[in-house]
Amino acid sequence: MASAPVGEWLVASKTAHIRIVDCEGTLWGVVSWQERAGIDDKNPDPAKRGRPTLGMPVLLGLKPSGPDRWGGSLYNSQNGKTYTGGITVLAPDRVRVRGCVLAILCGGENWTRVNQADEDPASSAAICKGLDRPRS
User: What is the DSSP secondary structure assignment for residue 52, as one 8-state letter?
Assistant: First the structure.
């Protein structure tokens, strides 16, 4: 099995980077760079509607689901919806992110690894600590 897709990824539209970190065995992805700043104004939780999309989690608690695959939930701030989905490592520098509505209408896109130094453990720990996630 390939290593987990931890690191910095450029989304297909090239308008954002997602940093994927391993938080105690689950993968989380947060927006780490954006071409244009955004606000999470369609979030169904009124308390989160004013938050900036920079630093916001979009890959939520992904767990291993097969060889080179992780499954869980994906949040889309463009419509405020959370989808069942996951990520598959296609190559060391490419992953496929997929999401489904009602487990039948599925879509996805390929992300490309951003060339940079190895993951900074202190940065990853800070991201994990800042997430609003259930504690096991």
Answer: B
